[in-house]
TrEMBL record:
One of its GO terms (molecular function) is metal ion binding. Belongs to the iron/ascorbate-dependent oxidoreductase family. Coiled coil: none annotated. The keyword Iron applies. Residues 205-307 form the Fe2OG dioxygenase domain. PANTHER family: OXOGLUTARATE/IRON-DEPENDENT DIOXYGENASE (PTHR47991). It comes from Chenopodium quinoa (Quinoa). Keywords: Iron, Metal-binding, Oxidoreductase. This is Fe2OG dioxygenase domain-containing protein.
Length: 358
């Protein structure tokens, strides 16, 4: 990967300063204008809300709801997860405070090439401009490895606001428990041994959680830019803490885009490509994207469960049978395959590259 051009770096947040014109590099190609002007009128998805307490007590109805939603949408929102709304607001608050800092303060945590390697992610603050995408996302972001603690590069964690680290460590510890409960419940909903998905993620000290802190500045030409282009997540599973006031996340189902509702007390779960592979296609990794508001900035925090790249991932043998032949190849380091294609504009379903064609 080319060296990251620190000197030329400009946060999207500052792009409109001066003339206030959105540069062409951010304007979507004509053929990407699928629903220009119409985004606000898109239907809301029929989002399943899962009660974690019921799930953990193995309520058959709740497990069936989970199975059905992950099989159709690949996404649910989870409530009763043990984190209070005021705590979730604190997490959102420190993210907002970080992105509100002056650029020279944020640049102390700038993403450097040396911080990444084939098996460790690039960490720090940046935006997609540094990867020279064809059309850029209207998004500034920060990537931090959040788990396990032994792998955290705390020198890249913001010192301001001063409670950033405490809040994020606390949120990560609670999220790890949430991930574990969800993975167990997902296995149970498929009538598998409840520890089966720990083979995929969670039982290995090289399994990690990568956090992506997103900031989508408001944009007057909001319907001509993408906050985040359509993509499926390359993780095993992802949880997203959405902004509690500003909508923007959309999900694709049967070729149509739907808005994802804001449920302030909920945490959103997306199936990632590696879980779609492990579940032999029963759980779907949905394409999703983010649209930008003309009036308000939006933040979110996506936490990706990334399996040890040395581990071979493939459809579980219990989920392969005559009616459902093996749909995906067995592979290692899906992240590497994923990031070879990721900067492309049309890379919304990279999982197709590892499909077995009968
Ligand atoms: O901003 C959001 O709500 C979703 C972010 C997302 O999809 C990602 O970071 O992969
Ligand atoms: Fe995503």
């Amino acid at each position: 990967m080319a060296a990251l051009p620190t000197a030329a770096f400009k946060p999207v947040q500052e792009v409109l300063e001066g003339e206030g014109v959105v540069p062409g590099r951010y304007i979507k190609h004509k053929d990407e204008h699928t629903q220009e002007d119409g985004d606000v009128l898109l239907p809301m998805m029929d989002c399943t809300i899962i009660d974690l307490a019921l799930l953990s007590s193995s309520s058959p109805q709740e497990l069936a709801k989970l199975h059905s939603a992950l099989n159709s949408w690949g996404c649910v929102q989870v409530v009763n997860h043990g984190m209070t709304s005021s705590f979730l607001d604190e997490v959102r608050g420190v993210i907002e405070q970080f992105f509100a800092l002056p650029t020279n303060e944020k640049q102390k945590y700038f993403r450097k090439e040396e911080s990444g390697s084939s098996d460790a992610p690039l960490e720090g603050y940046a935006n997609d401009d540094v990867y020279q995408q064809k059309t850029l996302n209207w998004n500034d972001n920060m990537h931090l490895l959040l788990f396990p603690l032994a792998k955290c590069k705390f020198e890249l964690w913001p010192q301001k606001p001063s409670n950033f680290r405490t809040i994020l460590e606390n949120y990560t510890t609670k999220s790890k428990m949430l991930f574990d409960s969800l993975l167990r419940a997902m296995a149970r909903s498929l009538k598998l041994d409840e520890n089966n998905f720990f083979e995929l993620w969670g039982n290995d000290e090289e399994d990690t959680i990568l956090g992506r802190f997103n900031f989508y500045p408001r944009c007057p030409a909001s319907n001509r830019v993408d906050g985040l282009k359509p993509h499926g997540d390359g993780s095993a599973i992802t949880i997203v803490l959405q902004d509690n006031k500003v909508e923007g996340l959309q999900i694709l189902k049967d070729g149509k885009w739907f808005r994802v509702p804001i449920i302030p007390e909920a945490i959103l779960l997306f199936i990632g490509d590696q879980m779609e592979i492990a579940s032999n296609g029963i759980f779907k990794s949905p394409a999703h994207k983010v649209v930008v508001s003309p009036y308000n900035d939006r933040v979110s925090l996506a936490m990706f469960c990334i399996p040890n790249p040395e581990k071979e991932i493939g459809p579980l043998k219990e989920l392969i049978n005559e009616d459902r032949p093996q749909l995906y190849k067995r592979l290692k380091d899906y992240g590497k395959i994923f990031f070879q294609y990721y900067p492309e504009n049309d890379a919304d379903r990279l999982i197709h590259t590892v499909k077995i064609n009968y």
